[in-house]
Amino acid sequence: MNSVIAFIIIFGALVFFHELGHFVFAKRAGILCREFAIGMGPKILAFKKNETQYTLRLLPIGGYVRMAGEDAEMLELKPGFRAGLILGENEKVKKVILNNKDRYPDLRVVEVADADLDKELYIKGYEEGEETLQTFTLSEKAVFIEDGVETQIAPWDRQFNSKKLYQRFLTIFAGPAMNFVLAFVVLAVLAMLAGVPNEEPILGDVIEGDPASEAGLQQGDVVTSIAGKEITTWTDLTDIISDSPGEELTVDVVRGGQPLSFEVTPRVEVYENGDEEIRQGIMGVYNDLIESPSIFQSIAYGAERTYEFTVLIFDLLGQLVTGQFSIDALAGPVGIYKNTEQVAAAGVYQLMQWGAVLSINLGIMNLLPLPALDGGRLLFFGVEALRGKPIDRQKEGMVHFVGFALLMLLMIVVTWNDIQRYFL
């Protein structure tokens, strides 16, 4: 149950902040946001505030902000339609009733002759019993009501595609960007709570039973040299140890002001990198922690770790593209859940760091220039900037549709691999 709760909280936070980035910049640009959804599929919970419906959906595989104009607007009034109109105090139409008109008193029922719901915002038609063509002006926030469901109209200046290129770019880019911001904040807070690793070569926790402990090294020892090579930073120490699996090394330290020497043989740890087998040395020590870092140290740590994880993920992506990793190395929702389960058992700090890594991962994946992803849409904006005009919306929509279908196929394959790996 703890693992399920941890997974829901982490996944929900990642999707929420990603979509929040889209949502905030869309609202700043004046775009009508019809829905802010976490999850996909059937609704579990829904409520409406102002112009936007907020929904929680059943399947934890993403989320979305439905902006007016991204897809073709479904509201239309064709000539010959009979519509009931409710006017406001300013004599502008505030409600258009499409059916079940007998439920609404004081309607003005018209037979539509012409209508413009985007730019001019009018309905022309003949009232019952009248032969004179009348023109009714629509309020910019007028709603259509069909089967009791209200849908607000979207004037052209409230639609996504009416906005300037930079506004559309920022609206789409803000989603992935928010994932990097979230990771940075989480890692900075983690530094404040758990401490900041000290870059000086001072030993922190020494793992019982590992080579360092067996050789007699202790917490607080200051390492000055290894195998005759001067050590000034923690990175110097880890580089030498990692490159010396199974080799006996002389480790010189200062303990309580006294110089001491120990013979340490790093144990060999083997892992696979594609078809290549990698051997590295492990001594079994952690670096010392600054337990009460300043806010500036915490911020610097958050930025540094965000950068390091970003570089690492890009490196792994490069290995995947070049064939050093197979598709079997990818993890879907099932794999992420199982990994979250293992990390949750290690403690809340490890869970926070795992959430930050997943947030960076989500941000990078969405920035890839692939159809149906945010990066694919940004790529189309780049082409539009070069051409001086947008690509035909139907052609772009078809590209995104095909891309989405392929991504769903990949998701099915990865999920099946996860199920086989963990349950079969």
List the helices and strands and how they pair.
Elements lengths: L1 H27 L4 E17 L2 E16 L14 E6 L5 E5 L10 E9 L5 E6 L6 E13 L2 E4 L12 H30 L1 E2 L5 E4 L4 H5 L6 E5 L2 E2 L3 H9 L6 E7 L2 E7 L2 E7 L2 E7 L2 E3 L1 E2 L4 H27 L11 H14 L1 H20 L6 H14 L5 H31 L1
Parallel strand pairs: 4-7
Antiparallel strand pairs: 1-2, 3-4, 3-5, 5-6, 6-7, 7-8, 9-18, 10-17, 11-12, 11-13, 13-14, 15-16
Helix pairs in contact: 1-2, 1-6, 1-7, 2-5, 2-7, 2-8, 5-7, 6-7, 6-9
Provide a descriptive summary of the structure in words:
The structure is a single chain. The mean pLDDT is 88. Strand 6 and strand 7 (134-146) form a beta hairpin. Among the domains are: 81-153, no CATH class; 197-290, PDZ domain (Pdz3 Domain); 295-423, no CATH class. The chain has helices at 2-28, 165-194, 211-215, 234-242, 295-321, 333-346, 348-367, 374-387, 393-423, and strands at 33-49, 52-67, 82-87, 93-97, 108-116, 122-127, 134-146, 149-152, 196-197, 203-206, 222-226, 229-230, 249-255, 258-264, 267-273, 276-282, 285-287, 289-290. The strands form 6 sheets. It has a 5-stranded mixed β-barrel. It has a 4-stranded antiparallel beta sheet with strand order 12-11-13-14. It has 424 residues and is of the alpha+beta class. It has 9 helices and 18 strands. Helix 1 packs antiparallel against helix 2 and helix 6 (333-346) packs across helix 9 (393-423).
First and last CA, distance: 22 Å
Radius of gyration: 30 Å
List segments where confidence is low: pLDDT < 50 over at least 5 consecutive residues. Answer: none
Strand order in the largest sheet: 3-4-7-6-5
Mean pLDDT: 88
Computed structural class: alpha+beta
Globally, the shape reads elongated
Number of strands: 18
Helix content: 40-55%
What is the helix/strand order?
Answer: HEEEEEEEEHEEHEEHEEEEEEHHHHH
- Main beta-sheet annotation: 5 strands, mixed, barrel
Number of helices: 9
How much of the sequence is in beta strands? 25-35%
